[in-house]
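Justification of resources, computational component.

The compute hours requested in this renewal are based largely on the per-chain cost of generating structure records like the one below. Each record pairs the submitted sequence with a full structure-token output. That output is archived, and it is also reused by downstream analysis tasks.
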Amino acid sequence: MTKSALQIARAAYQPKVPAALKGAVKAVDGAYTESVADQDDIKKLFPNTYGMPVVTFEKSNEKKELPAMNVGVILSGGQAPGGHNVIAGLFDGIKANNAASRLYGFILGPGGLIDHKYMELTADIIDEYRNTGGFDMIGSGRTKLETKEQFDKGLEILKELDIKALVIIGGDDSNTNACVLAEYYKAINAGVQVIGCPKTIDGDLKNEQIETSFGFDTACKVYSEVIGNIQRDCNSAQKYWHFIKLMGRSASHIALECALQTQPNICIISEEVEEKNMSLDDIVTYIAGIVAKRAAEGHNFGTVLIPEGLIEFVPAMKRLIAELNDFLAKHDAEFKMIKKSEQRAYIISKLTKENSDLYASLPEGVARQLSLDRDPHGNVQVSLIETEKLLSEMVGKKLAEWKAEGKYVGKFAAQHHFFGYEGRCAAPSNYDADYCYSLGYTASCLIAAGKTGYMSSVRNTTAPADKWIAGGIPVTMMMNMEKRHGEMKPVIQKALVKLDGAPFKKFAANRDEWAMTTSYVYPGPIQYFGPTEVCDEPTKTLQLEQAK
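The structure output for this chain reads:
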């Protein structure tokens, strides 16, 4: 297999780890925990894994030879940079406890567990993937582990391979499922521990003990490099407004972090839109206002960052989508009989006044996406809506109206970008390479300590790595009850952007200046070799949250 010069050099990189993980380790139990909300309901659902203590690992003076143990690992959900290092850290950790321990990877996600598809991960395989991006060592998948049948089917192969612990590397849904699995295996005395690891580039799996989900650092650095490049081009040609949509379906952490790194003219934060009950027209008027003000200064160019999930945070759009979903579900057959050219007028005539007016104001293409492209459940596929094009089209329309009224004198031309997949499998930054390896190694320590229903936790990560704090927290501690598909389910609470948090406040304090002054910052590509301040810098979000 041909390798690039960077791949060859990166293979030799030794991730930095917390001092406590070097040598013999002991687990110290801390405070007992309860869930973030709905304590009685969560306790009832998780009688065997609720209320367990937070665990911290410390250096131990006695090196105990632990019995050999077989461990399974699953990559679940979307890719995030550093997943391979979690597996490498887990492998090295179980081998440090006993060289005869073995690691099995289930192929293409949780489905591999149910379908009994697996491979043994030997040192040769692991070494091939150290410090690399992607999940291609064993692949990933989105099968949800939810039913007793799935748990029992999985248990068959775990028993056959004599696997005593399973590590599930995933986001909030995958770790919720890991917790349900841990509870079930404990309840039936299956003798299988289940440990989770916090993964998602979206950055919405975090709390006091989980500072950040892995992959967020690398993905934001990749997007910020490209945004910086576009801003340099933008400031060179001085003739385009670039509308850039960024991944982040539920939360705007990526858009906010990239804004802090690159200082664009405009960045929309979904959580603020919802909080202020802004309409689509409010957002369009806000963007058009800045375009017009910059034009008055002779600057007919700029950059706009837009989070992927924005539409679902606009309260009026949310109401429109809900009514559309209901209406089209009930009148599906009738709707299909109507000529394509008349469908828009038909829907406008059938919706309530507020929703009808909003639907009529949308560009033709977006209105079509809302009414035609449904998912298998008959719902609008919000992620398919090209929000960057929707906003630029509506801004263009508003500016044309202002021009006719003599309120605007500039030229407006837009370019569109969506950065998503480019960041999910990038070679992990030094921060993610170190953090992920430490998370995997910590998972091996949680297994050795006999824990189940825990998530691997590494904290204090704005400090040098040897001062990081490794431990674990019960997954039930992060849970609340939410409505999913019409019924109340226990799920890990999503962490949205906090409008009273330091990162958002820093952005809000500077955005008016960035709007007018063209204060672009150009972060450049991720650096793996060189000065610490360039190579090991954590995200601006983390630095601000920890006041570093």
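The chain has 23 helices and 15 strands. The CA atoms of residues 32 and 389 lie 50 Å apart.
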